[in-house]
Design a protein that fits this description.
One of its GO terms (molecular function) is lipid binding. InterPro entries: Bactericidal_perm-incr_a/b_dom (IPR017943), Bpifb1 (IPR021193), Lipid-bd_serum_glycop_N (IPR017942). The protein is an alpha+beta fold and 475 residues long. The chain has two domains: 24-218, Bactericidal permeability-increasing protein, domain 1 (Super Roll); 295-446, Bactericidal permeability-increasing protein, domain 2 (Super Roll). Helix content is 33%, strand content 38%. It has helices at 4-20, 33-46, 49-54, 58-63, 71-81, 175-219, 286-296, 306-309, 311-324, 326-331, 423-442, 449-453, and strands at 27-31, 86-94, 98-101, 107-121, 129-145, 151-160, 166-169, 223-225, 228-240, 243-253, 259-263, 280-285, 301-305, 337-342, 347-351, 354-366, 376-391, 394-412, 446-447, 459-463, 467-472. The strands form three sheets. Strands 1, 8, 9, 10, 11, 12, 20 and 21 form an eight-stranded antiparallel sheet that branches. It starts with a helix and ends with a strand. 31% of the residues are buried.
Length: 475
């Protein structure tokens, strides 16, 4: 028996090994800048960003401190402002958002270009003086660490971009009106950035928080696996280049809502591919994929009246048994039974671009449906090619072929014999009975809700050496 010192030493070695290992999350959702731009643009529209721009209080803003602290100059400007009846935004547009790595490399810079035209009405002229204003709002998406060490995405430093403000007259009028307009434009230079900060930035912050909440809600949508379901949750976010990566935890729940398996960070490897121009990707670790397949294909027992269902196969089985024992073959009646038991769930083995599934199977042959003991019981290690593909927004899986890689005679009522004599016929039985049954259970596929939720019609998938990756299909 190992002593306390040995136990302590083993624990220390295990802790050191785990401390030095790179722990991988069960899944990673990578979001490219196109998704971020599109989602944030939609939320800005939902919060009526254009309406807020059109109601910016320009006139009251330039009247707050029209001439700084110079009294004489202030009186002149005030007399000029008295000639303005109203000053308001007559048209506003938010141009295409830009998302790129921030200058300090610690986040993503979101740039929101604004294009506005303001109308200036004065009794000095019957027509409206139009002022063109262009500026850019910038904010930084960062990963923030809270007091308890939890990390989350935040929007930081919303303000007018340095040097982005440009104000000009759309068309020149009389000298007097042009002078008045120039004075107004000079007052808008400090006033507009303040209005952006106080009026627009709170709305941008709210739009970002809505986008973030929608993203987390979509991540947490349960993935149906027959009667079971798989659920993801956010572990921690990270920003790498121009990509937001959400590290996800996972759990498997049964039909009663009880958690049957937890997945957290572990030393199991996970290869997250470079996103490139792909809008998003969901990378799922091999053990999570295997658990999903397990949920779809739990252990079961198949009982088949072979002579009724597959008479030609029953005839070939009888011929094979006749080689072992003619007396046993003659006992096979029209109600002969083949029983297939999958004692353990399939084990999925991923490789770069391909996958295999291995499973342990018990096969029994009974002379009739009234027989209490089988002629023989075979233990079979079988394997199949596992083909992943997509259909619309669903991930599909199909087992192609099946081979009996190893056969062991577990017990026999007809004397000892080499199970290799039955290799071909047992493979045929598995191909004809087990394979269609398993593929039938896999036929409904696994829904990937975020594909259509983000406006894509179809999903696409591929395999790495240790993970399954789902992306939207190219248009």
């Amino acid at each position: 028996m190992a002593g306390p010192f040995t136990f302590t030493l083993l624990c220390g070695l295990l802790a050191a090994t785990l401390a030095g290992a790179t722990l991988s999350p069960p899944a990673v959702l990578s979001l490219g800048r196109e998704i971020i731009k599109e989602r944030l643009t939609q939320k800005l529209n939902n919060h009526d960003a254009i309406g807020i721009l059109q109601h910016l209080p320009l006139l009251s803003a330039i009247r707050e401190k029209p001439a700084g602290s110079i009294p004489i100059l202030g009186n002149v400007v005030n007399s000029i402002l008295n000639h303005i009846i109203w000053l308001k935004i007559t048209s506003a547009n938010i141009l295409q958002l830009q998302v790129e790595p921030s200058d300090e490399g610690q986040g993503l810079a979101v740039k929101i270009p604004l294009d506005m035209v303001a109308g200036l009405n004065t009794p000095l002229i019957k027509t409206i003086v139009e002022i063109h204003m262009e500026t850019e709002v910038q904010a930084i998406i960062r990963v923030n660490t809270g007091e308890r060490g939890h990390t989350h995405l935040v929007l930081h430093g919303c303000s007018n971009s340095q040097g982005s403000l440009r104000i000009s007259l759309l068309r020149k009028l009389s000298f007097l009106v042009n002078s008045l307009a120039q004075t107004v434009m000079s007052l808008l230079v400090p006033a507009l950035p303040k209005l952006v900060k106080t009026q627009l930035c709170p709305m941008i912050q709210a739009a970002f928080e809505d986008m973030h909440a929608d993203l987390l809600h979509l991540v947490r949508v349960p993935v149906s696996l027959g009667s079971d379901r798989l659920e993801f949750d956010l572990l921690s976010p990270a920003i790498k280049g121009n990509v937001i990566q959400l590290e996800l935890g996972a759990k498997l729940l049964n039909s009663h809502g009880d958690v049957t398996k937890w997945f957290n960070k572990s030393a199991i490897s996970l290869t997250v591919p470079y996103l490139d121009s792909t809008p998003f990707s969901l990378t799922v670790r091999q053990d999570v994929v295997n658990a999903a397949v397990t949920a779809l294909l739990p252990p079961e027992e198949l009982v088949v009246l072979l002579d009724y269902v597959l008479p030609e196969l029953a005839h070939r089985l009888k011929s094979n048994i006749k080689v072992i024992s003619e007396q046993a073959a003659n006992q096979l009646g029209p109600t002969q039974i083949v029983k297939i038991l999958t004692r353990q769930t399939p084990e999925l083995l991923l490789d770069q671009g391909s996958a295999k599934v291995a499973q342990l199977i018990v096969l029994e042959v009974f002379a009739t449906n009234e027989a209490h003991h089988p002629f023989f019981t075979l233990g079979i290690e079988a394997s199949s090619e596992a083909q992943f593909y997509t259909k619309d927004d669903r991930l599909m899986l199909n087992f192609n072929e099946i081979s009996s890689d190893w056969i062991h005679l577990m017990n026999s009522g007809i004397g000892l014999f080499s199970p290799e004599l039955l290799r071909n016929i047992t493979t045929e039985i598995l191909v004809s009975i087990l394979l269609p049954n398993q593929n039938g259970k896999l036929r409904s596929g696994i829904p990937i809700s975020m594909v259509k939720a983000w406006g894509f019609k179809e999903a696409s998938s591929f395999l790495t050496k240790d993970s399954l990756v789902v992306t939207p299909a190219a248009p």
